[in-house]
């Protein structure tokens, strides 16, 4: 069984305690989100889970067959064009170059890029286009687990909905598991099966919410309704007060 398990994880930067006693597990096919205010340690936690940072205390076991990461900023290679950026991971894991390019082109079109964009370099792409490329680069790998760090934050509402719709379809088809980090409560409610609330200083999990309506059945009314309901919750109010500095 593919699974990500986080047990009693603590993390410090210098003398500052960033994360304290983090415990959760993510099973295959699930979308788990971690929601909390900026500076609360969300990115740090995701980097620990994705093995980008070394675990100092506690344990993280990841038995997913493969994973990919989409960051808040697109982080494209400036000297590679759109298609080469997307194909990067495929080629890096040894797939045939021609097939990699072909897969990259197919997914680029699916993500709303056009043939005109294929040989553009990142400097000639808009922010939204770059984010499309970044998503395509992660998903072309068909990862079994996808790590998402606030990937929609900088996007306009149209593109946000479009990229979310692609994920929701993949979730419905049981093609992917996702660990999703965000400070946006509504976004988390729209996409996750399980939502953990991370309170800051040091980051610790104070509450767990579960949503049992399938993601592809959640309309705006459901999301707004749930948000309103959850915003009555004492822990949510306390946690997000930190945002209102
Ligand atoms: N490499 C680092 N060295 C020192 N402090 C860091 C480092 N990375 C993050 N921090 C600090 O850790 C805290 C949590 O940061 P982060 O995990 O990025 O939070 P979030 O993603 O929730 O905004 C912040 O106070 C940040 O300044
Ligand atoms: Mg962050």
Summarize the structure.
This protein has helices at 42-49, 82-92, 97-110, 127-139, 157-172, 185-191, 220-230, 234-241; strands at residues 3-13, 16-27, 31-35, 57-62, 67-70, 145-149, 177-182, 194-199, 204-210.
Descriptive overview:
The protein contains eight helices and nine strands. It is of the alpha/beta class and 245 residues long. It has two domains: 3-66 and 144-244, P-loop containing nucleotide triphosphate hydrolases (Rossmann fold, 3-Layer(aba) Sandwich); 74-142. The chain has a six-stranded mixed β-sheet with strand order 5-6-7-3-8-9, with helices on both faces. A three-stranded antiparallel β-sheet has the order 2-1-4, covered by helices on one side. The structure holds adenosine-5'-diphosphate and magnesium ion (MG). Adenosine-5'-diphosphate binds next to helix 1. Adenosine-5'-diphosphate (ADP) binds at residues 13, 18, 38-44.
CATH topology of the largest domain, what is it called? Rossmann fold
From the alpha carbons, calculate the radius of gyration and give it in angstroms. 18 Å
What hetero molecules are bound to the protein chains?
adenosine-5'-diphosphate, magnesium ion
Shape: globular
Can you say what the CATH homologous superfamily of the largest domain is? P-loop containing nucleotide triphosphate hydrolases
Protein structure class: alpha/beta
Return residue spans where pLDDT drops below 50 for at least 5 consecutive residues. Answer: none
CATH architecture of the largest domain: 3-Layer(aba) Sandwich
How much of the sequence lies in strands comes to: 25-35%
Q: Work out the helix count.
A: 8
Q: State the helicity in percent bands.
A: 25-40%
Number of separate structural domains: 2
- Give the beta-strand count: 9
Order of helices and strands: EEEHEEHHHEHEHEEHH
Please give the CATH class of the largest domain: Alpha Beta
């Amino acid at each position: 069984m593919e699974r990500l398990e986080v047990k009693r994880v603590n993390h410090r930067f210098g003398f500052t305690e960033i994360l304290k006693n983090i415990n959760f597990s993510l099973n295959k096919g699930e979308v788990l989100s971690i929601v909390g205010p900026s500076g609360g340690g969300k990115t740090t936690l995701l980097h620990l889970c994705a093995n980008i940072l070394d675990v100092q205390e506690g344990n993280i076991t990841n038995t997913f067959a493969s994973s990919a990461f989409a960051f808040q900023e697109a982080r494209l290679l400036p000297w590679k064009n759109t298609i080469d950026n997307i194909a990067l991971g495929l080629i890096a894991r040894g797939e045939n170059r021609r097939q990699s390019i072909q897969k990259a082109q197919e997914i680029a079109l699916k993500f709303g890029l056009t043939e005109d964009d294929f040989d553009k370099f990142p400097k000639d792409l808009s922010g939204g286009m770059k984010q499309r490329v970044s998503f395509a680069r992660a998903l072309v790998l068909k990862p079994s687990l996808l790590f998402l760090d606030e990937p929609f934050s900088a996007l306009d509402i149209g593109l946000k909905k479009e990229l979310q719709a692609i994920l929701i379809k993949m979730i419905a088809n049981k093609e992917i598991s996702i660990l999703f980090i965000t400070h946006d409560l509504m976004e988390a409610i729209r996409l996750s099966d399980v939502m953990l609330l991370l309170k800051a200083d040091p980051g610790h999990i104070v509450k767990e919410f579960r949503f049992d309506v399938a993601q592809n059945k959640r309309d705006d009314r459901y999301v707004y309704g749930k948000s309103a309901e959850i915003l009555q919750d004492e822990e949510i109010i306390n946690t997000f007060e930190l945002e209102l500095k």
